[in-house]
Specification:
21% of the residues lie in helices and 23% in strands. A hairpin with a 3-residue loop joins strand 2 and strand 3. It is built from two helices and five strands; from the N terminus they run βββββαα. It starts with a strand and ends in a 17-residue tail after the last helix. It has a domain of 66 residues. It is an alpha+beta fold. A three-stranded antiparallel beta sheet has the order 1-2-3, with no helix packed on it. The protein has a two-stranded antiparallel ribbon with strand order 4-5.
């Protein structure tokens, strides 16, 4: 990994999770076909399947998180449907009765 300040991080320096997370400018790795591959992306994530960094734009990152089950994405619903869903969530029998409202909750 090559950073904006001129520093680098490689597998010699530690595990992928130990690499600094900000200001990555490029990632280079060995490539069986070309000898080396250099990636210049906005976002990078460690791909356990291929044991290397993958990169892409924000949508690619979201798709990766969704595929791993780590991100859930909302969608547009009509106002009527949205309020129906909120009523259903507030009446869910699997949860204890509400004793108060949190500051961030819509009423």
């Amino acid at each position: 990994m090559f950073y904006e300040d001129g520093s680098t991080f490689s597998s010699v320096d530690g595990d992928p999770s130990e690499a600094p997370g900000w200001s990555v400018q490029a990632i280079a790795h060995a490539d069986d076909l070309t000898g080396r591959s250099v990636s210049q992306r906005d976002y990078y994530w460690w791909d356990d399947e291929y044991e290397q960094w993958a990169g892409g734009d924000l949508l690619s990152l979201c798709q990766w998180f969704v595929a791993k089950g780590l991100l859930k994405v909302g969608s547009y619903a009509s106002n009527d449907r949205y309020h129906e869903i909120l009523r259903q969530a507030n009446r869910d029998d699997l949860l204890p009765e509400r004793s108060a409202w949190r500051e961030h909750e819509r009423r």
